[in-house]
Amino acid sequence: MDRILEFLQPARQSILGFLQGVLGLEQTVSEAWIWASLGCSLLLLIYLSVWFLVRRPKTRRPTLDDPTTPVIEGVEDESIPGPASDAPPPATEPRDEPGPQVAPPPPVEEEEVEESLLDRLRGRLSKTHDQLIGRLDQILGGGSKEQDLIDDLEEVLVTADLGVKTSQDLLEEVQAELDKKSSGPVEIKTALRRKIGSMLEVRAPAFHTGSAKPFVIMVVGVNGVGKTTSIGKLASRLKALDQEVMLVAADTFRAAAIEQLEIWSGRAGTDFVKHKPESDPSAVVYDAMQASLSRGTDVVIVDTAGRLHTKANLMEELKKVKRIMGRELEGAPHEVLLIVDATTGQNAINQARTFHEALGVTGIILTKLDGTAKGGVIVGIANELGLPVRFIGIGERVEDLREFDAELFLEAIFGEPEGGWVH
Ligand SMILES: Nc1nc2c(ncn2[C@@H]2O[C@H](COP(=O)(O)OP(=O)(O)OP(=O)(O)O)[C@@H](O)[C@H]2O)c(=O)[nH]1
Ligand SMILES: [Mg+2]
Questions:
Q1: Is the CB of 396 inside a 6 Å radius of any atom of ligand 1?
Q2: CA 391 to CA 234: how far, in whole Å?
Q3: Which pairing describes strands 389-393 and 245-250: parallel, antiparallel, or unpaired?
Q4: What is the DSSP letter of 245?
Q5: Fewer CB within 10 A of the terminal residue: the chain, N end or C end?
Q6: Which residue out of 96, 227, 228, 229 has the highest number of ligand 1 atoms within 8 Å of its CB and is therefore the one to mutate?
């Protein structure tokens, strides 16, 4: 305290001189004025310091402008105005064509009600459950004759978007069960559950990013299915596992698409490679491959277009992008992930077939399973194309991308089996 008073002495003396000499105030009045004004100044100083600390912008995320890396021509990564992770996403540009609007990543909610994985999945898949199992229960409990039962079941399976072939396969299973005569509704339902389970268990190499460095993931799918959003969520998952991730904006169709990926990149804290809108996607990928190889990136995730500016065939463009990856790194891309929107229903199987024939898809991410009754499409895709479902999207938040677990999925859809769960 003495030190503070000593420090304030010169200020006190000069104000005292001013008040007494110029204004002619008495000694006691002048002293009161001095201490009041010094106190106010101190309070103002404290207030300004706190305000400055609270409003100070957050630290920028890391970018490719690391001085240890050689400058890569065409990689526009310096001075990217990355948004603060908790700032509201900026407004996005209007689309060049009609289609789903660009969705900036939703804000990260810090507090979430504790909910088990199964409960959450059940909640999100409730419409598919109602469409498939709710109706199934009605039919099985209705005491219909055998042929009526088969007809009704067929209708349920087809309208639940399992696809014609898959529905037929399942009906054969039901027929075999009915032929046993001793089978009732419970046995039929159990047989269906078992058969759907075996359809979902596709034999495929595991999704293991450690098998190559960098592990290159090419993400494809028609526009609006959730490619960019799924990439953002996947990047966050990988970053949480301490992987060095690079996101690549090879969907150059519109500026907003690049911006959207950049926001996700900022949130997850990944490297980011982009060119100008409308530039050649292959050139972006070439730069990204070079950069990731020189930096020792663990995982490179490439966002691609669902449509093009030119009349060029989308599949031909994507094949070219894929070739560039393989040319720069043998074996790349290590995973070609097809994003499929569950709400598309039956059409999703056709889309998947087209992409698979052109690009050799290695896995599926099925998005928007929340709020749709068409979740059965997952069974059709797995069964008809023999492609593994790697992840499912059950919402727009980061944590809404889930590794696909066939058993958990069945539990969520079918509900508790006879005799309860074995824990
Ligand atoms: N409800 C829900 N919405 C999702 C899910 N995944 C993505 N979306 C939403 O789907 C919309 C389209 O997602 P994008 O990631 O922009 O799709 P895209 O395939 O990159 O679209 P283009 O870049 O136009 O080809 C956005 O509004 C997303 O928030 C999901 O699992 N559930
Ligand atoms: Mg996109």
A1: yes
A2: 9
A3: unpaired
A4: E
A5: C
A6: 229
pLDDT in tens, the chain (423 residues): 666 667 667 767 776 676 677 666 676 766 777 777 777 677 777 777 777 665 543 333 333 333 333 333 334 443 333 333 333 333 333 333 433 344 555 554 444 444 677 888 888 888 888 888 888 888 888 777 777 888 888 888 888 888 888 999 999 988 888 887 777 778 888 888 899 999 998 877 778 888 899 999 999 999 999 999 999 999 999 999 999 999 999 999 888 999 999 999 999 999 999 999 989 999 999 999 999 999 999 999 999 998 866 666 889 999 999 999 999 999 999 999 999 998 888 888 888 999 999 999 999 999 998 878 888 888 999 998 899 999 999 998 998 999 998 888 888 888 754 444 443
Q: Does the bond joining 214 to the residue before it have cis omega, within 30 degrees of 0?
A: yes
| Cβ-proximal residues to 333 (8 Å cutoff; 6+ apart), any chain | 216, 217, 218, 302, 322, 325, 326
Amino acid at residue number 223: N
Contact 258, 249 (CB under 8 A): yes
Q: Looking at the CA of residue 229, tell me the nearest atom of ligand 1.
A: 15
Q: C-alpha angle with apex 227: 224 to 233, nearest 5 degrees? A: 130
